[in-house]
Structure formats: structure tokens, C-alpha cells
Amino acid sequence: MANVHILDHPLIQHKLTIIRDKETGTKIFREVVNEIARLMAYEVSRQMPLEDVEIETPLAKTTQKRLAGKKVVIVPILRAGLGMVDGMLDLIPAAKVGHMGVYRDEESKKPVEYFCKMPQDIASRQLLVVDPMLATGGSAIATIEALKSRGGKDIKLVVLVAAPEGIKELQAEHPDVDIFTAAVDDKLNDNAYIEPGLGDAGDRLFGTL
Ligand code: PRP
Ligand code: URA
């Protein structure tokens, strides 16, 4: 069963409260989403594999550590996932970025895929799927299926707010995918929005309310 990592560092919790507040406007919302993503990248990257490398300091030869393997791929789920990309890239600047376009149909709440552009060799890379919201789980599940169908194996999901319902669905469909979230909220409402949540993440990020 996939692990759920709740990243409840005080700075993350403080910033999450700012973006939950309905009085927070687009400019601050966008900035703070990126700040949280940066802090989450630090926690998520704890598990990155290292390898030994021999170097020479000005004084001696020495064996030290460096990141092993191919470059990470950050996969934002459009649109709202885009809000987390720059913050993640601040800490993992050499990462590649693969875009996945999925939106939730307003009536059915089911995911609709409209775009997918991944770097080569995703089979041998660590893939970090980013989206502020895990609600029913449909969008994340569809994205992970798309990545697996292209050979993706090492996949993690990084969200800001998760609903228990979405976590359960994702664990059932993709038990191999660990979930990193800043908060697990109470529930989904009748419209499949997370409560207390932060509203519509894409609309708040891009000012399309
Ligand atoms: C939001 C959010 C997730 C999805 C979560 O996107 O950014 O991708 O809903 O809901 P789910 O877990 O029930 O699938 P939305 O469909 O609003 O698209 P947008 O980012 O383009 O606004
Ligand atoms: N999408 C959002 O942006 N917010 C929610 O609460 C649920 C889905």
C-alpha cells in the first residue's frame, strides 16, 4: 500500500493557511503556492538515491556523494499543477518537465485528458506528479495511468491538499505511488470540492474565478 507522507513543517502549515483564506488574491496565492512547492521539494527529495564519486579538493582526493541516475521529471497536471513547477525547479533545477492536461468534467466530475507531452526515457526516471488538489483522485489516477502506459515506473504524487476519498481511490488504483501532501482535509462536499480546502486552485492561481 502506498505511503501517505503528511509534510506538516510549521512553515508549510503557515503558508497553507494563507492560501486557504478567501481574502488572499491571485498575486499572493501564486507566490505562496510556489513557496510551499519549494519546501515540499526539499522533503520529497530526501529519498533521492545517491552514488559515490571520486573528486579532488584543493587538499586531497576523496570519495563523496552525488545524486544518482537520470534527471527527475516534474509532471504538472494542467492547469493548477503549473503553479507548483517553479518552486520545485528552484530546488531541482536540472529536472525536466512533462505536461499533462486533464480537467474534471463539471457534471460528471470525471477526468478528461486533453494533452500529454513527456520527455524521453520516462521509464528510467523518477517522476514527480504535482497538483495542488487531490479531490476524488480522478485526475491524478488518469495522469498516473498515462505515465505508466508510456513506461513510467517510479512515480510520486505531490499535492497541497488531499481529501480522504481521493487518497483511498489512489491507493486502490496505484498502490505503488507514494503521496506527499501538506494536509489531509475533512471530506468532499456534494460538488466534489475539498472541505475546508482552498476552493478552485486553478481559478485562484490564474484569476479565472
Ligand atoms: C482541479 C485540480 C485537480 C483536480 C482535482 O483541476 O487542480 O487537477 O481538479 O480533482 P479530482 O481529484 O476530483 O480529479 P480542474 O479540473 O479544476 O482543472 P484546472 O486545473 O484546469 O482548473
Ligand atoms: N479542484 C479544485 O481546484 N479544488 C477542489 O476542492 C476540488 C477540485
Which descriptors would you attach to this protein?
single chain; 209 residues; alpha/beta; Rossmann fold; nine-stranded mixed β-sheet; two-stranded antiparallel sheet; 31% helix; globular; binds 1-O-pyrophosphono-5-O-phosphono-alpha-D-ribofuranose; binds uracil
CATH structural fold name: Rossmann fold
Structural class: alpha/beta
Number of helices, counting only DSSP H or I runs of 4 residues or more = 6
Bin the strand percentage: 25-35%
User: How many beta-strand segments?
Assistant: 13
Q: What is the CATH C level class, in words?
A: Alpha Beta
Order of helices and strands: EHHEEEHEEEEEHEHEEEH
The pLDDT mean sits at: 97
N- to C-terminal distance? 37 Å
Principal-axis shape: globular
What does this 3D model show about the protein?
Strands 1, 4, 5, 6, 7, 8, 9, 10 and 11 form a nine-stranded mixed beta sheet that branches. The longest helix has 19 residues, at 26-44. The protein is globular and about 65 Å long. Helix content is 31%, strand content 31%. The chain starts with a strand and ends with a helix. The protein has six helices and 13 strands. Helix 1 (10-20) runs antiparallel to helix 2 and helix 2 (26-44) packs parallel to helix 3. With 209 residues, it is of the alpha/beta class. The chain has helices at residues 10-20, 26-44, 85-91, 138-149, 164-173, 201-206, and strands spanning 4-6, 50-56, 61-67, 73-78, 96-97, 99-104, 111-117, 126-130, 133-134, 154-162, 178-184, 187-188, 194-195. It has a single domain (4-47, 70-206), classed as 3-Layer(aba) Sandwich (Rossmann fold), CATH 3.40.50.2020. It binds 1-O-pyrophosphono-5-O-phosphono-alpha-D-ribofuranose and uracil. Residues 80, 133, 135, 193-194, 197, 200-202 line the site of uracil. Residues 7-208 form the Phosphoribosyltransferase domain. 5-phospho-alpha-D-ribose 1-diphosphate binds at residues 79, 104, 131-139, 200. It catalyses: UMP + diphosphate = 5-phospho-alpha-D-ribose 1-diphosphate + uracil.
